[in-house]
Predict the structure.
Amino acid sequence: QALTKPSEWAKLQAAPLTSRCFQDQLTGLREIVKAVGKEVSIITTVFNPFENGEGMSDWKATEHLRLEPEKVSEGLSTVADSLANFVRACIDVGASGIFFAAHGGQAGRHTESEFRKYIKPHDLTVLNAAEEAGAAFNLLHVCGENLRLQEYADYPAHAVNWSPQLGNLSLAQGRRVFNRTITGGIDQNGAIIHGSQKDVSAEVLKAVDEMGTTGFMLGAGCALAEPVPAPRARGLKSYTSKKKEAVKVYRLFYPQIAVIVASRTTHHVEAVAMNSVISGSSDPPRVVCALKGEAKILAVVRDSKSFSVNWMDSRFVKSVDFLGFQRAGNPRDKIKAAGLTWVPGTKTSAPVVSEAAAVLECTLDRVIPLGDNDLVVGNVVSVKTSRDFSEYWQFKTYKPLIYFGAVPGKKAGRYVLFLSRRRGLVAAPHARSWLRIPPAS
């Protein structure tokens, strides 16, 4: 029975997990997990409390909210608690996480104040429940047109998805808002439904040109209205096959030593752990770093005109992991946040990591756009080495951190387990890739 009056929302009672609406979904989810759970990650769709409320009120939730907001919010809180229990049950039966479809964030539907007070808190109840239940991957889908995407920036989810075609931010613009993996690139009403295989391939290439291949998952901006015809599906597969070859070329260059590149402005110290740093020239001495165009470190290097390259040893694996293989947020001093210290360079303003086994100070020579990376060319103006280096590295005392190029580990909770140090590998909390410490000779 539909909610016809705003006052009726406060009378809602939580639906128990034993109710048919939940049990039917949990039964189906168990069967899916049983059939393919060992091969793929499974996420289950959960519409947010507001959208559930729309269905329960014959699509009058916004109207009711304007008339009696507190009573409607009380009802949405009841719905959120029910969904939170359902989400916990989904994780318990084997789902990797949830596809959280968030409605109600359109600029023309609610004011910012209404959204923050009456919609967002109930969304967070459900998402926090998924996170606390140990979900490995939650995908936030923000549905609708003319969205205030910035209102969702602090929602706890591993990846975010929306439709740029509906008057919303582009994927690249949204990446700057969310600072995490973005899913999209395929117009759900476009070539995938009405175009040719060639059209689909072109759309995929355009998306990858915009977003690169790191921190981006190809997908539709919203639900597909029709099944995807086979020729268009082949358009996706054709690109995927080409991409596998490109990744093969990329990974042939691994393993490589991981270093920390650092730079600073007056108010911000930025640092990132990376492996794509090489000697570009010995006379004059120059280094080349490959950085993503949207990387924060690149903006700081452009502004300060200087940077440092810091070689770390095995004692600092957690710090390197924090700066490179785990999302490090946006603290004002990344080096300090990673548990390290720094001093100003002797020849530049760049921060020099005090714990580093070797440091290069560089002034910015130029930035060269190149595919999904920009090449940063630096002129070396100072070299500092420890006793671990004379003409060459002394590997009896220096234990470098070596990046193996996103080789998946064996998951256990929120950690990735590695072979013991005796066999040359070390565990790094939250690591997404293998960091290796060579065994002592």
